[in-house]
Amino acid sequence: MHLVLIDGSGFIFRAFHALPPMTRRDGTPVNAVFGFTNMVARFLREHVGTHLAVIFDAGRVTFRNEMYDQYKAHRPEPPPELVPQFALVREATAAFGIPAIELEGFEADDLIATYACHVASAGGRCTVVSSDKDLMQLIRPGIDMLDPIKQKPIGIDEVRERFGVAPDKVVEVQALMGDSVDNVPGVPGIGPKIASTLVNEYGDLDGIYRALHAGEMKPSKRRDALEAHEKNARISRDLVILRTDAPMPLPVESLGFTTPDSTGLGIWLGAMGFKSIAQRLSIEAVEPEVAPAPAAAEAGASSELIPDHAAPFSDYLCVTDEAELARWVAEARAAGLCAVDTETDGLDPRRANLIGFSLATAPGRACYVPLRHEGDLEHPTGPQLDTVRALDILAPLLEDPGTLKVFQNAKFDLAVLERARPGLRIGPIDDTMLISYAQAAGLHGHGMDELSARHLGHTPITYDQVTGTGRNRIPFARVPLPKATDYAAEDADVTLRLWHILRPTLRTNRSLALYEQLERPLIRVLHDMEAAGIAVDEAELRRMSADFGARMAVMETEIHALAGRSFNLGSPKQLGEILFDEMKLSGGKRLKTGAWSTDSAMLESLADQGSELPKRILDWRQLAKLKSTYADALVQEINPETKRVHTSFQMAITATGRLSSNEPNLQNIPIRTEEGGRIRRAFVAQPGHVLLSADYSQIELRLLAHVAEIPALREAFAEGQDIHARTASEVFGIPMEGMDSLTRRRAKAINFGIIYGISAFGLARQLSIPPGEARAYIDAYFARYPGIRDFMDRTREEAKANGYVLTPFGRRCWISGIDDKNGARRGYAERQASNAPLQGGAADIIKRAMVRLPPAMRKAGLDARMLLQVHDELLFEAPEAEAETLAVLVRGVMQDAAVLRVPLVVETGIGRSWAEAH
């Protein structure tokens, strides 16, 4: 007997990364399937034994996770283009008539080891088709390996070359080395060379530790590491040893090789577009009976096929039967890809009820599942699925690691679905909104309707069209099912079509890494932060509101006295009449309506001229905003279930990649004012816990020093100097020692002002100096640091040439108006272009940290939670006993989030309230 075992799970990953992108005519990615199918076809010609099987992993959780809960815990989700291909590889195996074997709770490697050893012990031969290093421990008489990519045998000599030991000692070396990919701990500082030396000298892990405990090893860092991490080394050996006693789902005798059915195989190869493989097998590839997609070519070509989106946006199905829903779920899982959308009775995912959901499995193939529609006498709903039962049927699809779920604004739908079914954890996911945003931030909006019009040439049904507007609007639950079905199912259909079109452009626009490493993993991070929320002191907020109200009343009396009469302070029209018609202040501008402009910029300009009334109005407006936006609104935002406030982070709004928050907006609380500090005092930790604030210090200035050739700034940051004092010394020629605070403040204003393209007039107003003096400061600054001027000129030219600028990490920030004929608008765009790489780079860095922090906290065994992100600051809540440990971990992760030419510095603070921590 010669049994050939193909490591299906291992090969699909290698094929995926080895081959260029390919898609089937319906847009489904197939490069890994093509590689797998090609390899099997080759085996049928060259390497077939008497028996043959393909072994797959059944899931990510196995008995090893019970031994060590961190095993493979940090492995990323498979790329979205690969997820649909898992099911197709199993289809390929069936088309060739080859048995496919997998078993819950065991890895494919354990099944391979069990079958291989069983055959070898019976006097047969087993060839393992894989290059997986973990399987090399099996090599012995009767068991050999074959690299499927290189088509080279792997024997004892190859194992010795790789590990420095014979196959029977491989596990001993692996126990010492560990494995960062699988999160096998090993012994820190011991690599393959040292590990093999130790094993060859002492025989195995037990021999190494006998010698250590007997004092036979000389004192050294290596000896200390071995002693400190003995437990991890022994756990590691248990983790890497393959089981040879796993249950065998199919008896060996049933794995006999048979020639594939050429008709069935030809139909499958034709449906996949693998005509070249069919030709090599001398069988006919039967084309499916559908019109070819535009510009269609064989999937084996390196260019991607264009999906056929000619299917009409109609004929959607309303599913009200459990069996029918189960068929849709099975169809989606078989495809390995589907779009999902939810319909709710509100926009707050933590309070809204799930009214229904929709699925799309192919362009034009979509359904809507109503759950809580009410209907009326004119439009009765008829039977609907019970919500609990429907989600029970849907959950296996949502949790299936082999099916990619595509959403538009995934964070919202995750929150709705996972709240509707506690314990549900959806994945893997993709988000068309973020796929678009990752490559076109600032170029256009990323809502579904706009993306559909832009990329599909289709205008979807609007919410207003099905619910009405104004007083005539009805809740979505009362929309008749035919209209609800057309609207909701179309959303899923459009989302899936957008995915087919936009997903491939991530690679061509060089935005794939940005999306995969930042935007996509951040969905889950932000979802968890929003779900965690933050506690607020309701009593303090009410006291604050009363105090602000009383102060506003006093200010209103004073303002009326300054104006000479009473008027409505909240009326821009009345204020304009007083300032410019009655008080005759100069510099007023009329709007198109004819009313006077009284915006903040105008009032600040009047205040700079020495007028007291505009200054007092600005103070009153600031207090009124704090009262309405925070002191009053936060009380209303407290969730009745959690007793916490849950903000919503907007991921695709800004042109620079920065997050924004709303309902409530927690990113615009004034930092430097007394009132702003008081607002932050109302954000508190729950009993027994504290808040930890971690803030990047001067991150945009550090990025400026990184991207521009400014040795003095780099030196100052490297040496930890006061950067503003150093700037003052460089620009004004004043020694740093004994520098007065006014000079330093001016340098600080220039440092930060330059980043945002401040004008001489703006700097003059900020420092209360004449514009000529401010211009002299700016000129002196650029003369001392010409690299900054060069950088700003370079980014402006880049924006004019390309329409966008790049952050240091490759994010495209599109700049609108860079060629505008209006000088003011063009100037604003040029300032945006200069600042975007810095602001966008800072956003990229903190997003990197945010993605890395949750797994780092889990690995450290901390119960802390990340709650808020406010520009360059992260806020955490932790048990008091964990606070100091958390501070060290957070600083380390944040400071290591990027490697710049200057060090990143993170300042942390701990307190019972946000104000105290900040």
What's the alpha carbon Rg, rounded to whole Å? 32 Å
CATH level-4 homologous superfamily of the domain at 317-509: Ribonuclease H-like superfamily/Ribonuclease H
The CATH class of the domain at 317-509 turns out to be Alpha Beta
Mean of residue pLDDT values: 89
Structural commentary:
- The chain has 918 residues and is an alpha/beta fold.
- Among the domains are: 170 residues, Rossmann fold, CATH 3.40.50; 193 residues, Ribonuclease H-like superfamily/Ribonuclease H (Nucleotidyltransferase, domain 5), CATH 3.30.420.10; 104 residues, Taq DNA Polymerase, Chain T, domain 4 (Up-down Bundle), CATH 1.20.1060.10; 126 residues, 5' to 3' exonuclease, C-terminal subdomain (DNA polymerase, domain 1, Orthogonal Bundle).
- Helices cover 50% and strands 11% of the residues.
- The chain has a six-stranded mixed β-sheet with strand order 3-2-1-4-5-6. It has a six-stranded mixed β-sheet with strand order 7-10-9-8-11-12, with helices on both faces.
- Helix 7 crosses helix 8, helix 16 packs across helix 21 and helix 29 packs across helix 30.
- The longest helix is centred in the C-terminal third of the chain and has 37 residues.
- It is globular and about 105 Å long.
- The termini are far apart.
- About 2% of the residues have low confidence.
